[in-house]
């Protein structure tokens, strides 16, 4: 019988509210990892949305600090911004200029018409709207582990048996390389567009909230070198149903202590003959089946 291979992925991984994140790679019998699994609360990217950034009295979805306002190196990167002395004719800039300027003296451009008039003009590297397009943000640590622009990922919400899917947008994460061509160490995880958050059942952010309520467990499954889901292939290889069993154990381990790896418990489970599946096994299996994974019970029918 075929058996999946689960291994810990080294790195100082961390995420939203998680100071430490355990990442696990999943491989077929031979070859490089076909999936990377980790847990953290979702970090939400609002870039490209009409109401992503703006004056406080407009109740924007995100803080201007997250668009580079106070960034000492890059300055603005989440909004269109210009030096007031060099701005194109007809472009309106946020007032007062001195208050909104970044480290380079640039000031955000303002929308002058439409439903989001007076909000700032938000941008993304791919020109997409985070409220419309489901995408994951690609940081250097993931890129160094084989994840590329356009690669496929999914995030599972166990409390509601939901899955949302996305493709990575490399430019949003700034997966930068050094002079030798190696990715710079950036171990942030779990950042996705607002659309992914909503698809996962997240409650739309209210004006009274500083942050959207992301306080629920999320399991990320990322597929390096793949632009679509290989779950059917993995399911065919996983005659023991180890994938849903491991994910179920990871959810249980995370509930006890954030950032804890389920690998020790999983190895004990395998060594013991796979007799005691986690209590959430059926729910996890059903959720994965909805996205193409084939459990052994399904294949025996």
Notes on the structure:
The protein has two domains: 5-44 and 128-300, no CATH class; 49-123. Helix 6 packs across helix 8 (281-289). The chain has 301 residues and is of the alpha+beta class. The mean pLDDT is 92. The strands form three sheets. It has a seven-stranded mixed beta sheet. It has helices spanning 97-100, 140-144, 170-173, 194-199, 231-237, 242-256, 263-271, 281-289, 296-300; strands at 5-8, 24-27, 35-39, 43-45, 81-82, 107-108, 135-137, 152-157, 162-169, 191-193, 219-223. Strand 8 (152-157) and strand 9 (162-169) form a beta hairpin. The longest helix has 15 residues, at 242-256. The two termini are 18 Å apart.
Output the keywords.
2 domains; 21% helix; elongated; 301 residues
| Spans of at least 5 consecutive residues with low confidence | none
Quick one: biggest sheet? 7 strands, mixed
Beta-strand percentage? 5-15%
Based on Cα principal axes, name the global outline: elongated
Structural class: alpha+beta
Number of domains: 2
Radius of gyration: 21 Å
Arrangement of strands in the largest sheet: 1-2-3-11-8-9-7
Q: Quote the average pLDDT.
A: 92
Spatial separation of the terminal alpha carbons: 18 Å
Give helix and strand order, one letter per element, not per position. EEEEEHEEHEEHEHEHHHHH
Counting DSSP E segments of at least 2 residues, the number of strands comes to 11
Helix run count:
9
The portion of residues assigned to helices is 10-25%
């Amino acid at each position: 019988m075929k058996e999946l291979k689960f291994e810990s992925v080294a790195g100082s991984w961390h995420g939203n509210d998680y100071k430490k994140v355990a990442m696990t790679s999943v491989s077929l019998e031979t070859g490089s990892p076909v999936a990377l699994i980790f847990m953290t609360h979702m970090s939400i990217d609002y870039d490209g949305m009409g109401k992503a950034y703006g004056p406080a009295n407009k109740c924007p979805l995100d803080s201007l600090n997250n668009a580079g306002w106070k960034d000492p190196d890059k300055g603005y990167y989440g909004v269109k911004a210009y030096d007031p002395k060099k701005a194109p004719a007809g472009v309106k800039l946020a007032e007062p200029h001195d208050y909104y300027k970044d480290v380079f003296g640039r000031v955000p451009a303002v929308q002058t018409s439409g439903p989001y008039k007076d909000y700032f003009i938000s941008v993304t590297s791919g020109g997409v709207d985070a409220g419309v397009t489901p995408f994951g943000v690609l940081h250097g640590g993931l890129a160094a582990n084989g994840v590329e622009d356009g690669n496929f990922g999914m995030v599972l919400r166990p409390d509601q048996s939901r899955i949302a899917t996305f493709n990575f947008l490399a430019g949003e994460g700034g997966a930068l390389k050094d002079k030798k061509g190696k990715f710079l160490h950036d171990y942030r995880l779990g950042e996705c567009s607002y659309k992914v958050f909503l698809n996962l059942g997240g409650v739309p952010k209210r004006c009274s909230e500083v942050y959207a309520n992301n306080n629920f467990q999320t399991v990320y499954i990322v597929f390096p070198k793949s632009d679509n889901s290989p779950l059917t292939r993995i399911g065919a290889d996983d005659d023991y149903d180890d994938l849903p069993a491991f994910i179920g154990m990871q959810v249980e381990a995370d509930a006890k202590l954030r950032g804890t790896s389920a690998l020790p418990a999983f190895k004990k489970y395998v060594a013991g003959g796979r007799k005691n599946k986690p209590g959430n096994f059926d729910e996890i299996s059903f959720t994965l089946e909805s996205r193409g994974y084939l459990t052994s019970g399904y294949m025996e029918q």
